[in-house]
Amino acid sequence: MSIRYTKEHEWVRVEGDVATVGITSHAAEQLGDVVFVELPDVGASFERNADMAVVESVKAASDVYAPVSGEIVSANGAIVDDPAKVNADPDGEAWFVKIRLSNREELDALMDEAAYKSFVEAS
Amino acid sequence: MNEAINVELKHTPLHGLHVAAGARMGPFAGYDMPIQYPDGVMQEHLHVRAAAGLFDVSHMGQAFLKTTQAPIGAPQAHEAIAAALESLAPGEFKKLKRGGLRYSVLLNDEGGVHDDFMATRPAMEAGDGKLFLVVNAACKEEDYALIADRLAGRAELDILDDRALLAIQGPKAAAVVDALFPGAGEQKFMTMVPTEWEGAYVLLSRCGYTGEDGFEISVPADDAERLAKALLAHDDVKWIGLGARDSLRLEAGLCLYGHDLDGTTSPVEGGIDFTIGKRRREEGGFPGADRILRELSDGPARRRVGILPEGRAPVREGAVILSADGAEIGVVTSGGFGPTLARPVAMGYVKAGFDAIGAALQVVVRGKPLPASVAATPFVPHRYYRG
Fold this sequence. Notes:
- The structure holds two protein chains of two kinds.
- By secondary structure, chain A is of the alpha+beta class.
- Helices cover 21% and strands 36% of the residues of chain A.
- In chain A, the strands form two sheets. In chain A, strands 1-2-3-9-8-5 form a six-stranded antiparallel beta sheet.
- The two termini of chain A are 26 Å apart.
- Chains A and B meet through β4 and β6 of A and α2 and α7 of B.
């Protein structure tokens, strides 16, 4: 399936029952230079919209919310070691976590690319 | 993120230039100010440490404080205006030489810091009896009111609303400024020279708030854009926003009023004892002198310290500070990522007895105590002009 987006500027790409999650290039640009990333442990479970990770720029800290409920099956240590990757390739290499979906229906509430694009333009 | 702004934000005379440069603007002290430019906070910060950065600080308050007890330029005039200011601030202003500039603090009756400011004695004898003040943007109305009230009958304020203030900071700043103001490269640190640039009356001060060499340039509002463009024409000069201004002053260990200093903190607690002149320590005679002199002799109950978190997580303002064994001993007042050091840096207040350089402590970030230690400031050595 294609990529879905949240109003909190996360993207979600689903393959099988696993969702890869990252922050959008719009979010990365708004944050500015990312200097610190904290990711959840593999095996942890989150309800949708729960604080899941932290991303910090020189000036400010922002929470990253779980866009869907489920269990963390993988966390991208590369962005913890080199937080600047989040600015360099937010939509690709700098994914945050992979979540095993516990409720596929939650995906229906997320925006598609066109909807997200107009959401960003309107905000 | 987008708070509703009900009040009309003021613009500095350089607002249009910031917008044209692609700045991300945001509210600060009632002004719509450049937070960062397209390069971003990190690159802007490093540029100042490596070359020269231009800051619009026109939101700050500029004023002349003038004695009303002697004619300006008269032999007793400086003594009179210095005595007036000394009734509000602990500095040694009587001994200030012509053209000399001092960092000082306005005190409240409890010895707390009402604001921090710069005061300069004019360079010419004809200016004796006047002091040029630069105060924080967020405090300027209150400062002016306090000064007008406390010094009524002794001095009056001439508020310079029609002037802009530019700061240029960094190792290349002197060469850039010297090209526009010949001789400026040799100007002594913490002095001000009145000068002219293409018909504009300019006050050129060698000072700043980044830890780097540099100048603050007071210029008529109508000439500000022209002067900014002339400075920016140099390859070494780039606009720097308030974001990098904050990380630069933090690395330099300099206080931000309203965060590291406020109405409850004394200059002794704040670690800015140098603002209290030697004669003033003997004579007192400034607001809150009892408390401040007692703290100087017995030590304050708490003290501002530099803090180096051990890990990579930035520690922000408001984080609770714990002793090594977990007792609450203070709070972080400024903190973030220091781009020059590529690590988190912070400062905050700790109880007496916990302020030794190198002492282990913990800072609570998102509910977790993280290891840190008390560190000497500045985190990045000052590189002021000492020639």
